[in-house]
Amino acid sequence: MRVDLAGRVAFGRILRGIELLLAAGRDVSVIAVVSDPSPQRARRLHAFAAELGCTWLGVNIEEREGVNAQRPTTRDLNRTAEFWAELLRCWQENPRVQVREIDRALGFAAHTLREQPSPSRPAMIEPLPTVAFDGSVTLISPELAGFTSERHGVFSCGNVLDEPLDQLIDRGLAANWVREYRRGLRNCRDLCPYFDFCGGGHPSNRHFEHGRLDTTETAYCQNSKIALMEGVIGVAHHNIIRNHPR
Ligand code: SF4
Known about the structure:
Elements: H1 11-23, E1 29-34, H2 39-52, E2 56-61, H3 77-93, E3 98-99, H4 100-114, E4 130-131, E5 137-138, E6 148-149, E7 153-154, H5 165-172, H6 176-191, H7 195-198, H8 203-210, H9 219-243
Helix pairs in contact: 2-3, 3-9, 4-9
The site of iron/sulfur cluster has 12 residues, from helix 7 and helix 9.
């Protein structure tokens, strides 16, 4: 249950805010964090978003990250793939509520089918500078800001109160932890069949799950990229068989 800074349950006020937005003619999008994905939960979640009057539903499978570091991570990939497959079926039944992740997966599939085969996308580093409240700058992932690693120390390349941001970015891109992440990206590109869809990012999940940045698979990408794509492919396969029985 989401609470406000004072620890009070915020659910009723969130519902009221949604009602006001809808009454003012605004589209409403919601993001849900799902701890234990299952087909039944997918159906309830989509129905609830429809009941609220939402246009878009975004779904984050709960991650082990930041202050949420002690939580177990979902590992039953078949069940998670079924969760995504059920969300896809729910959207097909009621397209008024679109699902962000399904839309991305279908968009990728459509693009792949339309375009000529091309070489894998490059393993690009996005500097993504994050400036903390005290001016300290972290690169490649806002979720790493304020955290340290036993191997690399603090994930910061300096402070904007002392140095211009472009200098900090230049220096930060050569830091050991960014170089380690670059190796991880290359490993993803070279080893993972889902790389073109996924892009191989998520440095914070690598750190919080494995304690280093040059690994490849994490529970995060298994749940949110691999199982998602497998769920969508499973529905497509099932529909083809149903429509064209032997
Ligand atoms: S799915 Fe995982 S292993 Fe594959 S490219 Fe993405 S982050 Fe790397």
